[in-house]
Amino acid sequence: MRLPAFSSPRILIGGFAALVAGSTLTSSSTGVESGFGSFPANCASALPSCSLCHAGSSPSASGPQVRITTASNRRALSFGNTLSVSTTITGGIAGTTGGFVCETTAGTFTGNGTTTQVVSNPRGITHVNNTLRTWTYTYTAPTTVGLVQLTSVGQSTNGSSTGGDQFAFSGFDRAATSATPVRLFVLPTSVTNFGSACPDGFGNYPVLGANGTPSVGNTSFAFQMYGLQPGVIGLFWLGVNNPGFTGLNMNALGVTGCTSLAQNLVASVSLVTTGTASSVSQQQRAEGTATVPLAIPNNPALQGLVFDVQGGQLDPTVQSFRSLPLTLTNGLRVVIP
Questions:
Q1: DSSP character for 85?
Q2: What is the three-state SS of 25-41?
C-alpha cells in the first residue's frame, strides 16, 4: 500500500412577500421552516433570515451566540445512523424565550412534538413553542457517502413584540451574516467511527471520513478531513490498535481535551491544509480541508486486514489552552472486505 430560518414569539408566517406588500401579518409561536410559508430555502444559513419579520434584529457582536452540538461530539456516522443534535442560544436579549431553525444538506430530522417539529420538509426543523433557548432533536444520516453540513439560526426574544429581538447564525462570530456549518461525514461500508474529535479555538470539531469502500483494487480510495484550520500543517496516522484499546487521553502531554486513537503506528503523513492561513473568516469557520490517498492494491491477500487511522493539525488557535498546539479528528477503523 502507498500513503502519499427562523421564528420567535411573534414570528410572522406571511414572510417577505407580505412585508413588501404591507399586508397585515399573522404571528406564530410554533416555529417556521426553510422554504415553507414564503421563507427562503436557506433561512438557517444566511441573511435575511429573522430580519424578514423582526425589525432591526440583524446579527451583531453584542447579540446572542448560537451553537449546534452533537451527542458525545460525534461527527462521523454510518448509513442510517441517528444522532442527537441540539441548537442552543446564549446571550442576546435577557429572558428565556426564543426560537430556532436548523437545516441539513442531506439526511433528515425528526422532532419530538413537544419542543421541536418538522413542518413539511424533513431537512429542516424548528421549535414548537417559544419558551426555550435550547432545543434537542434527532438527525438521521442518509445512505450516500460524504460530507453533510448542518446550519442553524437562533433568536433571543423579548416575548412581547417583533421589535427589540436579536438573532444570530450558528458559529463563533455573533455578527456573521451566514452560518458556520457543523460538519458531519457519512461513512462507507467497512469503515466505522472510533472515538471523537477535540475542538479548535473557535469551537469547531474536525471530521475524518473516507470516500468509498476500501475494497481490494480500489486505487482511488482516500481519507478526507473537513473542518480544519486553513493553510496549516495537517497530520495523519495509520496504526493497528491492540484489542480493547479505547484511546489515550492526551491531557498529560499538553493536548488538553484530545484523545489519541491510533496505536502501533505503521505510517504517517503531513501535508498543508487548503485555504489561506491569514484569513480570519476562514479560521473562525474552520474552512481548511485535506485529502490523504491510500491506493489499495489488487491483492486478495489483503482481504480481512484491519487498521485504524486518525488525523489532526498543528493548530495556532489553541495555543492559549494547549501547550502542545494540536487538534485531533475522530478515529476510523477500516476493514478491507
A1: E
A2: CCEECCCCCCCCCCCCC
CA dist 118 and 132 (Å) reads 17
**Torsion sign, CA atoms 266, 271, 279, 42:** negative
Beta bridge partner(s), residue 194: 331
Residue 1 has pLDDT above 90, yes or no: no
For the domain made up of 188-335, the CATH class stated in words is mainly beta
- Distance (Å, whole) CA 337 – CA 303: 5
Residue spans of the domains in the chain: they are 11-183, 188-335
Largest Cα–Cα separation, the chain: 72
- Mean pLDDT over 113-117 rounds to 95
- Three-state DSSP at 51 gives helix
CATH architecture of 11-183: Sandwich (2.60)
Q: How far apart are CA 218 and CA 233, in angstroms?
A: 27
| pLDDT (0 to 100) of residue 102 | 97
Judge if 11-183 and 188-335 fold alike in CATH terms: yes
- The string of pLDDT tens digits covering residues 128-140 is 988 899 999 999 9
Rounded to 5 degrees, φ, ψ at 288 are -75, 145
> For 82-106, how does the pLDDT look when each residue is reduced to its tens digit (9 = 90+)?
999 999 999 998 989 999 999 999 9
User: CA angle at residue 225 from 224 to 226, to 5 degrees?
Assistant: 125
Three-state secondary-structure class, residue 306: strand
Please spell the DSSP secondary structure of 221-285, one letter per residue: -EEEEEEEPTTSEEEEEEE-PPTT---EE-GGGT-TT-EE---SEEEEEEEEPSS-TT-HHHHHH
Can you give the pTM of this predicted structure? 0.89
Whether residue 64 has a cis bond before it, omega within 30° of 0: no
Does 25 have pLDDT greater than 90? no
The terminus-to-terminus CA distance of the chain in angstroms comes to 15
Cell of 137: 432533536
CA distance 100 to 88: 9
